[in-house]
Amino acid sequence: MDRENGPRVxxxxxxxNGAKAEPGVPAQRNGRTTAAGGDGxxxxxxxxxxTTTSTEQPSHGGLRFGxxxxxxxxRDGEPVPTGSPQQRALLAALLLRGGRTAxxxxxxxxxxxxxxxxxxxxxxxxxxxxxxxxxxxxxxxSESGGYALRTTALDVTAAQELxxxxxxxxAAGDRAAARERLAEALDLWDGxxxxxxxxxxxxxxxxxxxxxxxxxxxxxxxxxxxxxxHAEAVSELTALTAAHPLRExxxxxxxxxxxxxxxxxxxxxxxxxxxxxLADELGVDPNPELSRLQQRILQADAExxxxxxxxxxxAAPVARPAQLPATVPDFxxxxxxxxxxxxxxxxxxxxxxxxxxxxxxxxxxxxxLAVHVAHEARPHFPDGQLYxxxxxxxxxxxxxxxxxxxxxxxxGTADSAIPDSLDDRAALYRSTLDGRRVxxxxxxxxxxxxxxxxxxxxxxxxxxxxxxxxxVDLAGAHLVDLxxxxxxxxxxxxxxxxxxERVRAEREAALDVVAACGxxxxxxxxxxxxxxxxRTWTVSVLAAKLADERRRLDExxxxxxxxKATFELGYGQLEPAQARAFRLLGLADxxxxxxxxxxxxxxxxxxxxxxxxEALVDTSLLESAAPGRYRYHDLVRLYARACADRDExxxxxxxxxxxxxxxxxxxxxxxxxxxxxxxxxxxxxxxxTSYEGLTxxxxxxxxDWLYAEANCLLSTxxxxxxxxxxxxxxxxLLWASLxxxxxxxxxxxxxxxxxxxxxxxxxxxxxxxxxxxxxxLAYVHHHxxxxxxxxxxxxxxxxxxxSVDDPLPTCWxxxxxxxxxxxxxxxEDGDKHLTLAIDEFRRAGDRAGEAAALCNLSxxxxxxxxKEDAVRMAQQGVDMYDEMGHALRGANGRYALGLALTESxxxxxxxxxxxxxxxxxxxxxxxLWEGMSLFRIAEVDIAARRYGAAAACAEKAxxxxxxxxxxxxxxxxxxxxxxxxxxxxxxxxxxVCWQEALDIYEGLSVPEASEVRALLAPRAAA
Length: 1022
Known about the structure:
Blueprint (H helix, E strand, L loop, with lengths): L25 E4 L2 E4 L27 E4 L5 E4 L2 E3 L4 H11 L6 E2 H9 L7 H15 L5 E4 L2 E4 L5 H17 L3 H13 L12 H27 L3 H14 L4 H13 L3 H18 L6 H11 L36 H12 L7 E6 L6 H11 L8 E5 L10 H11 L11 H12 L5 E7 L2 H4 L10 E6 L10 E4 L5 H12 L1 H6 L1 H10 L4 H13 L5 H9 L16 H9 L3 H10 L7 E2 H8 L3 H13 L4 E4 L2 E3 L2 H14 L4 H25 L22 H10 L1 H11 L3 H13 L2 H4 L4 H17 L3 H17 L3 H17 L3 H17 L3 H18 L2 H17 L3 H18 L2 H17 L3 H17 L3 H17 L3 H14 L5 H18 L3 H18 L3 H14 L1
Parallel strand pairs: 9-12, 9-13, 10-11, 11-12
Antiparallel strand pairs: 1-2, 3-4, 4-5, 6-8, 7-8, 14-16, 15-16
Helix pairs in contact: 1-3, 4-5, 5-6, 6-8, 7-8, 7-41, 8-9, 8-10, 9-10, 9-43, 11-12, 13-14, 16-18, 16-19, 18-20, 19-21, 22-24, 22-25, 23-24, 23-26, 26-27, 26-28, 26-29, 28-29, 28-31, 29-31, 29-32, 31-32, 32-33, 32-34, 33-34, 34-35, 34-36, 35-36, 36-37, 36-38, 37-38, 38-39, 38-40, 39-40, ...
């Protein structure tokens, strides 16, 4: 909320719009809560809720009022003074009567209750006079011995309208819009209602409006669960149940959210905690709804795990995916295969799930046939058709879990309901397909293992698979071996593309063309398309070109090489510059390539490069993956490399092209590193480059580039390991891209590539490169919680880099060893390593490194009880970072400072520093440190006895750290979450968390296990 300009209000904020406000706030009547305006005649009781209309109560001069917080008024966005607390109490009493007149007696009773002062009537008149001057005489009027306010521009009225609209939208099935309206209504609250307003009336209204806020909040959370956002709701519900422990509806929603998040034990623990609390505090049992929910959870009720279905009148239709690619209009031949496969798929309507697998050499037309058959079979599968290219012929085949995620979304499953593991996704996929008739086309599969999780599990569904290998190990599959076309079919396909008139005039030449193509459908289609696009050519010209064996392979072979004869024709028609681009771009290993990276490979300006690439797209030798990005089909890439081996002159140009690409990535990554870490000396110690990379003026733009290029960058690093001349630059590129390991987004691939480079450097006896590669591995192991491996690698770094006088990795390794020693409680070793690192960084003139080591040393000093030293060193590190404008590492410094301040008892300052760090980590996409900051904030909240807030932060930390940071850090967060839950009386959930943490620690054989056993011991004894 803007304290100066008033609350944020929706466009429908009452006042001048002519719309009648809907009743919605409960009104207090004789000690009971009813719906305002719902019982006919209204008594003249000033505790009634607001029920005004804008036609009866027009707004004046842009006046707006707020009571859902401090009592305030604004005119055209500017605050209007509302006077003393008693004067504000009078204003609130009039505002909440909805324009009806309040007698002087009623106002005196509202302000002072049963013991008014002797001059109460005079005081009321004085307050009213002052308000009339501050507001508008036409707004505050005197009548019938009392006063009335003529306005509808009140935040309560706006909230009523929003709540009523949310009810209508929810009833109509539009839950997303209903949630938005409720969120808008809840945003109108700004702290305590009628804050600092005295009097019995204000107290009554304060209680009533707070109860209404909680009801709206429960409704919004209920909608969250209905739409499947249960994982996101757990954190908020945990905090709310801590703040309102006896509110059973919140407990019920928390149980449901936990159960749907796969946390059944915690859900049952919530019930146990609630039952014990109600018995202790009120002497009652949980309400029937809560008890029924517990029983359904115990029975693993399948319906309970699903979000509520949409209401029947406007229910969203069941998702019926129609993902099949378009069938080619000139599909030719294959009649026997079409009948065979069609009949097989039709059996899926009976008692078995049909699986058919097509195998054949590349370019034989497997995909074309499968798509055509699938379209023919659509009437048998009215519930939809799924399609995916599994990219099995390349080096990076699609992961089954990724495909299952895409399929589940296409089938209508919300992202939040999709589990993480392959087995869980496969099970949910089969459950979702149960009772449906869906056809699944799995194209370009690598092997049977890749597709098994993607197969439906019930009758009524069918799967159609294409692959280059014959899947004899796919149990129950109907196998089809697809051969090349017959001469008649091949000629028919050629004629349909080129045109009957041209072919009839040169039939023999046309037969020569399809024979030269080996009757391979893809080859025929490419050749015919070329001829169709060149009206000046004759069929004989094309036949003569294909007859030249220099333009095609001497012999067609099985597998990938069989397609080369087809591509030879297209390649032969390229201009020299186009052909060079085609050859050289195929050398890069990445899944695709950006325009800027392609320009580096070709050593050409961007605009010239773009012209060449678009020309290759036009010839179908290259695909446009997205604006500014290009990719090869996997077979075309192999063919392009074969062309480079055969045609590139001088041969050294191939190595030069890849060297330029490596330079481009190293130069650009160094600039990303520098813009994120001003003052850091790493960029001064990298291998020199001869090709300029991109420049950035904005840190976010630089980050976007790094993460968008992550896969291509790491592929280039891996490729550099095969050549001694590029190995060192590849290692340095990996070092400069360390953010990819820290963010968690690409940490697994980063580790794999680092391992490859370390081995390559060892094999090449390049100690300098090996030391730097080992350094990146040390950091990866550190971030993943594998501290023994991290220490081993870091020690090796020190040994190797000192032997070759490479000082910066030595500094980094000493710093890393100190941090690792901290986690392993080897504090004396840690102090020694970090003191050495500080000296080494100072000698190297690396202030950023020195600051990092100081912050780490602060944590060692903190662990050994030297709290003042810890605060001083962390603050020194933060100051150094701030002087350099080093936001990201400055956040690491604030993280360390927050820990030191927490242990020193300076909890408010600790929370501020940690939240400052959290904001930077979120902005920089550092998920590991985002999660750890949330974890540390939870520790601060526990120290301050804010257990509900601590539980919410710890829940968020668990979500953020999912899949990164390692099990050790997850154990830390679970331990703190258990402490927070115990603090809010949810001891059952606390024990579940501690037991999971104990299992982790015992599996890792770390000393933290004894701490958790101590937490569990008293409860076990009880």
